[in-house]
Amino acid sequence: MKKKFYFLTAVLLCVVLLFFWKEKSGLWPGKESEGKGTGAPTGTAAPEQEEPKILKNVWILSSTENGIAFFFDGKEQTFPTKGRLQEFPKDCVGDLTIQNGEITALLLKPDKVTAKVLRVDEGEIELEGYGVLPLSEDFSVYRLYDGVEEEPTGKLLVGSSGNEFVMENGVVCASLLRSKPEFKKIRVVIGTEGYEGYFHETVEVTADCAYTVICGEEKEEFQAGEVCRFTKKSFRENSDRRVIVPEKTDGKITFCNLKRSSGAPSYRGSLEIEGRDEGLLVVNEVTLEEYLYAVLPSEMPSDFGTEALKAQAICARSYAYMELLANRYAGYGAHVDDSVACQVYNNTGETEAAVLAVKDTHGQVLYYEGEIAQCYYFSTSSGHTASAADVWENAEAEAYLPAKETPYDRKSPWYRWQTFLSLNSLTERVEDALKTRYQVVPEQILTYDGNRGEFVSKPIKDVGNIKSMQVYTRGESEIATGLLVVGSKGVFLVKNEYNIRTVLAPAKETIYRENGESVAGAKLLPSAFVTLQKGTYEEETGYLVTGGGYGHGVGMSQCGADTMAQEGYSCEEIIEEYYPGTEIGFIYEG
């Protein structure tokens, strides 16, 4: 009887413990509670179970025994847990499974690394010291300062240091931005000769002091003047990267087999060479201020007035910082390139006047209503600037970039100019130009559809002989914004000043400037401030193109700024003339 009594007592104790365990059991990281409850009452149907939904890589704000607060899909949310939590996660990333309005499972992701971002491309990221890593399909970027916000992947800025990256089995799941990034360096992808592309076949470098070539943990020392040569075969794999660092902080690295207008260019900072399938990609990382040392002389003649150079330095710094934040070149591991697509960099070497202008304006940028202004500039105005909305598709009309009269360019040789385009030469070129631009911006190269009675975007097949051309639309400043081209095989509408300048490019013609000088043809018409007049020249029928100014016409005229400087205007007055309503501020703290 005693044995039977002990046996029954043990069974009863097990039942009680099992019941107590089911009542008290909670959710543990990585495990899902069964959550079956006691079942439905006899004679009633069990409630319908919805499909479980997994929320990947959410930011967990806080938790209690019975619920979890988290940030996901742009908002803060709180859900109860099915069962009680035994641990209380917060300020971390995890996956949540939600079913019937309850969290049924939680998987925390505690593994993190802190690293500098070298490149962000589709589906992958390169981190300094960790190489190229895949991004999760549900990769998330959380900005954790000034509240919590979820940012697009494009906000993960190349060159930024101190970001935390959440890892799971070698895959990057999330990035945590805990403080506002402060950029004092900029990364420039160096184009090939003639700026035709970014991938070099070979790279030969030297330096004016001893320098080191770093590849991961390996380092190789070279003496000043000693040349180091790289080819695709120098790289063991596509993600392989060499970093070239001069021994002296003011040392310069020379790209020996690249030619710019002043010869082989030399770069401050470091050079990084990355091997890719297409060739060798070269990126120069340099302080923003030293970058401007080589932008100013490439963008504005150094013999311009001191105040004009200072205004240019402020504009160039503002433009560079905006490009840095835009992250357009993240796939190349850079913020900008060194061509006219951004700002021309190191085509002309540093000058004393340019360096002084940069130093005199250290850290200064233009602000408009608390935000850094987009400081466009160009060579010469026609006596009128253009609004950004008239020049670039989908650009907003900014109050500080108005279409306005300006009287300071009258002495410039590009203030007025003429060229003659024969119909024969146009017939040869226009079709190629339309096809080329259609490939880039199909929505801006339109063909008239007679059946629909409207212009539509469709591939250009045949233009035929050019029968007539006319400026179809103009902007507020009278800049041409639409060009109508009538060919024997179709009618076409060219939108946007850059496309118009491409189609009307005087590639083989002579341009006659107002001061009597003549200039050989160019790949672009000097500006889109033009009129077209059909006529005859040297027994050929064509169009006399009369224009004014040089460049897109938005923002500051550099020649106008120089005139103002020569007349005694200050840097601040020049800026007020071309960017009304802006204020000079600083980008560096402390």
Give a quick precis of the structure.
This protein is α+β, with helices and mostly antiparallel strands. Helices cover 19% and strands 36% of the residues.
Give me the count of strands: 40
**Average pLDDT taken over every residue:** 90
Distance between the termini: 87 Å
DSSP strand (E) fraction? Answer: 35-45%
What is the strand and helix layout of this fold?
Blueprint: H1 2-24, E1 31-32, E2 53-64, E3 67-72, E4 75-80, E5 92-99, E6 102-108, E7 112-115, E8 117-121, E9 124-127, E10 131-143, E11 149-151, E12 163-168, E13 171-177, E14 185-189, E15 199-200, E16 203-207, E17 211-215, E18 218-222, E19 228-230, E20 241-246, E21 253-255, E22 266-267, E23 270-276, E24 279-287, H2 288-299, H3 306-326, E25 336-337, H4 352-360, E26 364-368, E27 371-372, E28 377-378, H5 388-391, E29 417-422, H6 423-440, E30 445-449, E31 454-456, E32 466-474, E33 480-487, E34 490-495, H7 497-503, E35 510-513, E36 518-520, E37 530-537, E38 540-547, E39 556-557, H8 558-566, H9 571-578, E40 583-586
Parallel strand pairs: 10-13, 14-25, 28-39
Antiparallel strand pairs: 1-6, 2-3, 2-5, 3-4, 5-6, 7-12, 8-9, 9-10, 10-11, 12-13, 14-24, 15-24, 16-19, 16-21, 17-18, 17-20, 20-23, 21-22, 23-24, 26-27, 26-40, 29-35, 29-38, 30-31, 30-34, 32-33, 33-34, 35-36, 37-38
Helix pairs in contact: 2-3, 2-4, 3-4, 3-8, 3-9
